[in-house]
Specification:
This protein is α/β, with parallel strands linked by helices. 39% of the residues lie in helices and 15% in strands. It contains twelve helices and eleven strands. An eight-stranded parallel sheet has the order 2-11-10-7-6-5-4-3. The protein starts with 7 loop residues before the first strand and ends in a 6-residue tail after the last helix.
């Protein structure tokens, strides 16, 4: 079905260590960063949102991507957001940390913090401020040096709408050979580009990833939950040999899955065509207010039901175009408010919507309400 398909066999986590590689199948909401009216981060609402996403069938969450207004936050605020989201998220949800900065040194600092917080992968947008100087050699050097030193696997992030710099196909193909660069999120919205990315990275080396018996990703936080003693476990040694609680359960058997370079789309409008073009999943801004609608497209495609998948895709094309395409962060945040997630206002210079714009979004979201 998707690009991330491969050989499967069972093994025991107690006998073979987790290697940190990450399976990226499925839908990942690019979550927002909530603010108080005065612009301070509203951490309680961030916790509320992450808890609610954790109860949906999405594969995980991308924290501090473009939708998270990452460029609006200080380094200290970025760390607080990453910490809060990690502390709140369910252990089985893959957590992707947006850590892209303009310099390698600053990107590595935030990447190190994400690793300390037990994130599963890094999402790293192209450095772009010095755009005319960002040629193939500069981009290759930046990403290779990052991947060489980062403790977490790297996902390339090309979003030319905001950076005005598209990661060239030949650069992606070259970087796909690196053992610690596992995929790319492409937000160009172009199906021609998506198909070209899949073709250009098809020869990338296979990597071994962990999957549960039902083919979901195994996160580092799941590993800790499986191998650490439960909170109420008391060792025999600490009680002079008297056991008063059952020992920790045996670590569950998992699967190894051998996959190639993983391509993800950033376009909800083209989600189904991208899946049919053999991407493995999607990191979507529109999944922030409508995770269920996006998940239904993926599920129908995964279950080989093209009729239902097409119906589900068609249902969200226009809402995604209006909410994310026309109104951006402000529109996405208001749509979150409509669907039970806290959106609130963006940070200035972005502005909240007018009453007329809110009415347009409310009408567009009528069929994709949770």
């Amino acid at each position: 079905m998707g690009l991330a398909q491969g050989r499967l066999h069972f093994f025991d986590l107690a006998e073979e260590p987790y290697n940190g590689a990450m399976l990226l199948d499925g839908i990942f909401p690019a979550i927002t960063t909530p603010f108080y009216p005065d612009g301070r981060i509203y951490f309680r609402k961030l916790e509320h949102n992450v808890e609610r996403y954790s109860r949906t069938p999405v594969a995980g969450m991308a924290v501090l991507g473009s939708t998270g207004e990452a460029v609006m936050l200080s380094d200290d605020e970025s760390r607080q957001v990453l910490r809060t989201a990690r502390e709140t998220a369910a252990a089985e949800k893959v957590l992707i940390a947006g850590v892209g900065r303009e310099s390698l040194a600053e990107t590595l600092r935030l990447a190190e913090f994400a690793a300390e917080q037990q994130y599963d992968a890094l999402l790293v947008r192209t450095p772009h401020y010095y755009g005319p100087s960002m040629g193939a050699l500069q981009l290759l050097t930046y990403y290779r040096a990052l991947a060489d030193r980062a403790a977490l696997p790297v996902i390339l992030y090309s979003i030319p709408k905001f950076t005005h710099l598209e990661l060239p196909l030949e650069v992606v193909a070259e970087l796909a050979q690196h053992p610690n660069i596992i995929g790319i999120k492409d937000s160009s919205g172009s199906m021609e580009r998506m198909e070209a990315l899949v073709a250009a990275t098809r020869s990338a080396p296979k990597r071994e990833f962990l999957a549960t018996p039902i083919f979901q990703a195994v996160t580092g936080r799941m590993m800790l939950a499986e191998t650490e003693p439960p909170a109420n476990f008391v060792s025999a040694e600490s009680l002079g040999g008297v056991v008063v609680a059952a020992p920790p359960p045996r670590v569950k058997a998992m699967r190894k899955r051998e996959v190639g370079f993983q391509v993800l789309t950033g376009s909800a409008q083209n989600l189904l065509p991208a899946l049919e073009a053999r991407v493995c999943g999607a990191i979507l801004a529109f999944a922030a207010p409508a995770p269920q609608a996006c998940q239904e497209v993926y599920t129908a495609w995964k279950e080989n039901d093209p009729k239902v998948a097409a119906e589900k895709q068609q249902r969200m094309v226009e809402p995604a175009r209006i909410v994310a395409g026309n109104y951006g962060i402000s529109g996405l945040k208001y749509a979150c408010d409509l669907n039970g997630y806290y959106g609130g206002n963006p940070r200035i210079p972005l502005l909240p919507l007018t009453a007329e714009q809110k009415s347009e979004i409310a009408a567009a979201m009528a069929d994709v309400r949770n």
